[in-house]
Amino acid sequence: MAVYGALDIGGTKIAGALVDPGGRLVVRSSRPTPAREPAEVLLGAVHAVLDDLSAHAAWADLACLGIASAGPVDTVAGTVSPVNIPGWRRFPLVERIRSHPRVPAHVTPVLIGDAVAMTAAEHWLGAARGVDNALCMVVSTGVGGGLVLDGRLHAGRSGNAGHIGHISVDLDGSACPCGARGCVEGLASGTAIAARALAAGWTPPVGSAATAADVAAAARRGDSIARAAYDRAAQALAAGIAATAALVELDLVVIGGGVAQAGDTLFAPLRRWMSRYSVLDFARDLEIVPAELALDAGLIGAAAAASARTAAGTVRSGSAAVPSPPA
Fold first, then answer.
1. 190 contact partners, CB below 8 Å, separation of at least 6
2. Which fold has domain 3-116+295-322?
3. Is the pLDDT of residue 325 over 70?
4. Which of 2, 16, 125, 192 could form a disulfide with 49 if both were Cys (CB 3.0 to 4.6 A apart)?
5. Are 3-116+295-322 and 131-291 equal in CATH topology?
6. 28 - beta bridge partners?
7. Per-residue pLDDT for 319 more than 60?
């Protein structure tokens, strides 16, 4: 049975998997992302995940290899410049992964943005199944997004369409590493939630690195500072989602990633803020749901993109070359 290789590279971890044609993970591996280290150290972590995957017997049936990466990405050039991984700027990731000694000569890696990959997965097998117009978001170390328009994945010319994390929602806000100010990511990412809570006087558990999950746990216990940190994140997300809905008329919003695992701690204030920001008739009462594929969506989407590109080439959507998910 053929298997699809997949990598999902984010600011916190580098994950890999072999995925079967039904979207089920056969084997997986991961390493922490050495996000502040030089480019070659980062690549070493990616290669370590590939080493793990290639040691599995199913690797002999590898048909394709997809790479979902934090962005921006350039799917034409095969390069990545993740905002939260400063060691990679226009890094030739596709070329360097292709050079791994265990990647077969017939396999050309296919690059896709991590949030676009999540969108492909949720549209194929998850919460956006059968939906014609959807925004799918990853809220984690960073904030990313992808779009389904008129029933097709829309990645844009370079693969970055839907990058909602770098919509500015606070004109006088803090500078973002991307170069703008007041970006959604700087207010709503897991990193931002933890930092806001700490700055307001919240005390993390002893021995904890102070994560958004810790803040969520405190919020569920009734901690007012923790709840306020999630409320502020929800407000920023609502502003970005409402702006996107006003532009492209959405039917559904799907939110995944580590921060979304907070459940109603995030979704309850998000829906409340949406009623304040999304007020136009065609955008009002927009349904917002959790991702169904949880933390596997990036891997499944990367596999789907690689499979589609390998089997049928690219499908044109507007000005973009977009891989469609498997049938």
1. 139, 140, 141, 211, 212, 213, 257, 258, 259
2. Nucleotidyltransferase; domain 5 (3.30.420)
3. no
4. 16
5. yes
6. 17
7. no
